[in-house]
Amino acid sequence: MTPHTHRSLLLCISLISVLCLAVGLPLSFRLGEDGSSHLFWFWCIATVCVLIGVGAILLYEEMRLGKLQQQVARQTEELKKSEEKYRSLVESTEDFIFTVDATGHFQSLNSFTANFFGGTPSQFIGEPLSVLFSEEVAAQQLRLVRVVFEFRKSVRDEFMVTTGEHQAWLSANFMPVKDEQGKVVSVLCIARDITENKKLENQLVNTEKLASMGTLAAGVAHELNNPLGVMLGFTDLLLEKLAKGSQDYEDLKIIERHSLHCKEVVENLLSFARQEEGVSEYCDINEAINNIINVVRHSLEMKNIDLRFDVAPHLPRVGGDSRQMQQVFLNLVNNAAAAMKGGGILEIKTALSPGQDKVLITVRDNGHGIKEEHMENIFDPFFTTKSEGEGTGLGLFVSHGIVTKYGGTIVCESSSQDGPQGPQGTVFTVTLKAKEGDEL
Ligand SMILES: Nc1ncnc2c1ncn2[C@@H]1O[C@H](COP(=O)(O)OP(=O)(O)OP(=O)(O)O)[C@@H](O)[C@H]1O
Ligand SMILES: [Mg+2]
Q1: Which of 384, 387, 411 for mutating ligand 1's site (highest number of atoms within 8 Å of CB)?
Q2: pLDDT number for residue 279
Q3: Is residue 279 a contact partner of residue 323, using CB atoms and an 8 Å limit?
């Protein structure tokens, strides 16, 4: 029964009742005693009609209520299912999702966010942002939350979070959550871990920086080389004229020493710039390293350094000029020796990669290691922690240039103190392309 028929039924009952009264009353007056019996019958019919009508309406209302209840139950169920679906979607995602109020207190957060910070969602609800993020990051986020509340628009930003020893970069989007009237009631934040992208970005910047520094350094070195040669030449001439031990002689010797240091810097830079001029395309890396070892063996012994050379036999030749490769490994060995002032163990190992297409050379020392804040600078030109006169800071810069020119890689892992990352010390791993089908 539709509301329309329901209304029609009501109208019929009212009409019948009114009709009964309208016809019954005058008829009963006109017909005298007979009339009262007719009136009685009219009243009876009217009452029955009204009773039937009311009964029908009650029945109808009951049916309608039942249907409504069913409908509400069905819709509640559907709503529950859809809520479950979205909840599991939010819960299973590996993004940071949370909502905060205007004062920056958590209203909700997904398990991923809570687990990342070592807790459960209920633990953090009602707490301020600073309970998960550092004071600085929380203040930055609160500023964004206020902007969203004020301008009712989404804002995006990046920030760094720290948990224990781990650091992660997050890219976050803060969005307004509005009520039916369009008023912002809270702010939804969805953030994603972009640490890997950041690292790649930095690597790219570093590579570009190295390339442009290389070009610049080569130009400067070229300009300085000739005047330096002239200065050293004339210093030599003057030294010959002066009596050894005289004040002038000693002064000139200082000039000569510093000029030689400059020459060393310039030669390093020039060798970097001349990298295209490698003589041979391939070299026997075991032999190249052996040549270096023969040169440094004695001085390492003097420094109490135990040298262990673990050679993989029958290695294929690798892409790279032998002389330049010697330069790379001489610098790695010298660096390792400088890090083990009181003695230590220097281990050089060559091996074929599992895919047999590369040769890996590791140079490992147990010296003082490299501080974490220096790690991203060690390949930069002129970066050195050595005191003046001990290092130019070009060794790794030049080595990196040589290795990458031949399609290889050079990576460094270091620990400046014993810890879960490993024992104190440094490992440089140089990977070079093996010559196809070559075996010595
Ligand atoms: N094995 C190592 N152990 C500890 N620190 C290292 C090691 N290798 C490199 N370093 C750090 O990296 C810096 C840069 O090294 P790089 O070889 O480029 O320059 P340098 O050795 O200081 O000077 P140069 O090689 O030009 O004489 C070093 O000063 C040192 O701080
Ligand atoms: Mg060096």
Answers
A1: 384
A2: 59
A3: yes
Instruction: Select from 3.60.15.10, 1.20.1260.10, 3.40.30.10, 3.30.450.20 the CATH code of 93-193.
Output: 3.30.450.20
The CA-atom distances, in angstroms, between 239 and each of 140, 231, 242, 258 are 65, 12, 5, 15
**CATH class, range 279-440:** alpha beta
Q: 232 CA distance to ligand 2 centroid (A)?
A: 24
What is the tens place of the pLDDT at every residue in 351-375? 999 988 999 999 999 999 999 899 9
Which percentage of the chain shows pLDDT scores above 90?
A: 48
User: 210 alpha carbon to ligand 1 midpoint, in Å?
Assistant: 16
φ and ψ of 186, to 5 deg: -160, 175
The verdict on pTM exceeding 0.85 is: no
**8 A C-beta contact, residue 333 and residue 302:** no
Residue 283's nearest CA partner among 136, 403, 423, 185 is 403
Higher pLDDT, 283 or 261: 283
C-beta neighbour count of 308 within 10 angstroms? 10
Q: How far is the CA of 366 from the centre of ligand 2 (A)?
A: 16
CATH of 196-273, one of 1.10.287, 1.25.40, 2.60.120, 1.10.40: 1.10.287
> pLDDT tens, 3-42?
566 667 667 766 766 676 676 666 666 665 666 676 777 7
